Amino acid sequence: MSQVRIFSETHELYRAAASSPRKVKYYGWLTGRRPPCSNNALIPMNKKPKISGDVLKRARRVRMVLMDVDGVLTDGRLFYVPDGQGGIGETKGFDSHDGLSMRWLKQFAGIRVGWISGRESAGVVERARILNVDYVHQNHLSKLEPYQEVLRDSGIPEDQIAYVGDDFSDAVLMLRVGLPIAVANARPEIKKIARYVTSQPGGRGAMREVVELILRAQGHWGAVLAKWSLRKQ
Length: 233
Description:
CATH architecture of the largest domain: 3-Layer(aba) Sandwich
Number of helices: 9
CATH class of the largest domain: Alpha Beta
CATH superfamily of the largest domain: HAD superfamily/HAD-like
Order of helices and strands: HHEEEHEHEHEHEHEHH
CATH topology of the largest domain: Rossmann fold
Distance between the termini: 47 Å
Number of domains: 2
Low-confidence stretches: 21-45
Mean pLDDT: 84
Strand content: 5-15%
Shape: globular
Strand order of the largest sheet: 5-4-1-6-7-8
């Protein structure tokens, strides 16, 4: 009977796959890409973590969801391409499932959405326009100032805000909001201060998971399913 090893860190998974490609068959981490081995290894989806009563209680109060962009709405990779004017432009890849679900927050629960990013990208502006995002702040490595601006404009108290992050620059906000969430690819220190850690990584369904959590907690998931004729309301 073959042994099954669970990998908690991506670099451990890849090191094992490179050294013993025939032995590495199952992975406890969804990387979204094939391991560096010749065989067509199976990479199953991570199981969703159990949701505690405390998380559900906090999710029921949420009236606004704020998030980082790189590593949360994307997988963190940056693409540099010709901008058509002799220069180079930066772009990123977004997940369509994430985008669809973020529309549901406002449509079914009246929940506002905001993005706070340390980088600046025209692609982020365009994506936010398409999704009708309420607040977009870019080029802020220190995120406290734009966060406070959002608080003043929205009038929503901190205990009714969820924030989704992945790296150290997100910590200052995660320590303030009512529902701090880390994505699966977040740094270990960020996971420690989160109330909930998604099973899916950034740019590959993490925000869809967060949205479903909040809408289910607030009793709106049946209406979402009804819209798509999946269940009667």
